[in-house]
Design brief:
Keywords: Methyltransferase, Transferase. One of its GO terms (biological process) is methylation. One of its GO terms (molecular function) is methyltransferase activity. InterPro entries: Erg6_SMT_methyltransf, Methyltransf_25, SAM-dependent_MTases_sf. By secondary structure, the chain is of the alpha/beta class. The chain has one domain: Vaccinia Virus protein VP39 (Rossmann fold), CATH 3.40.50.150. Helix 5 links the parallel strand 2 and strand 3. The longest helix is centred in the N-terminal third of the chain and has 16 residues. The mean pLDDT is 91.
């Protein structure tokens, strides 16, 4: 998997949220959390697994809403940041963080109601294998996001330290099918790529996001979207 050693560095974990979700990056954080909440719906007493939970942005959010949630990640330092976040939010006793490999999930079949992964599949060298494991341990729903091949992200992807795996629409649909899932819904967003928002202050990011959202509702915007959210059922 791309970036495996990089994500396990303590200094990366400590700076991860600040570098990605400050300044204009706060818009990204809000939109991603909205996408997760829209997809999973009411989660009280639902069994939820987050793959590649990182610093626990979504794990803690869903624990606060009553989910019986487990966050799994390969990085010990990232998980420690998540535990600190859970402690500050007062939900340390209502969630579990586990270190583990997403290719070999340590859970029985159909163990969770919902399994989801955000910011993961752009690092996956074998996406079908990972998605198949997610489908195996889910009794109902699998949700994930991808970065899109035919978008502005492709113009600078090769400049990134690890690069990203970019996906076309037909490729994702084939992967979903190969994993034994049924695609229920897909949303497409952010014509202007994430990297731009992270570099600019809020007062610049806000107007750009308004224009971005308006363009994204058009057929042209749908074609140029850099991010897609995929909701599938088992």
């Amino acid at each position: 998997m791309k970036g495996q050693e990089w994500y396990q560095a303590t200094e990366v974990a400590e700076e991860y949220d600040e570098k990605r979700f400050s300044r204009g990056g706060r818009l990204i954080d809000r939109r991603e959390k909205e996408a997760v909440l829209d997809a999973v719906g009411p989660v009280e007493d639902q069994r939820v697994l987050e793959i590649a939970c990182g610093t626990g942005r979504f794990t803690v959010m869903l624990a606060e809403r009553g989910a019986d949630i487990t966050g799994l990640d390969i990085s010990g330092p990232m998980l420690q940041e998540g535990r600190e976040k859970a402690k500050r939010a007062g939900v340390s006793d209502t969630l579990e963080f586990m270190r583990g490999d997403a290719a070999r999930l340590p859970f029985p079949d159909n163990h969770f109601d919902t399994v989801f992964a955000m910011r993961f599949f752009h690092l996956a060298d074998a996406p079908v294998k990972f998605l198949t494991e997610m489908a195996r341990v889910s009794d109902d729903q699998v949700f994930f996001d991808t970065f899109n091949r035919f978008s502005a992200r492709s113009l600078y992807n090769w400049l990134l330290p690890m690069g990203s795996r970019l996906y076309g629409d037909s490729e994702v649909r084939r992967i979903v099918d190969d994993a034994g899932l049924r695609l229920e819904d897909a949303e497409h967003d952010f014509v202007v790529p994430y990297g731009f928002y992270r570099k600019v202050p809020d007062w610049v990011a806000g107007p750009f996001r308004s224009g971005d959202t308006a363009l994204g509702k058009t057929p042209v915007g749908r074609t140029l979207a850099t991010v897609s959210y995929w909701n599938a059922s088992v």
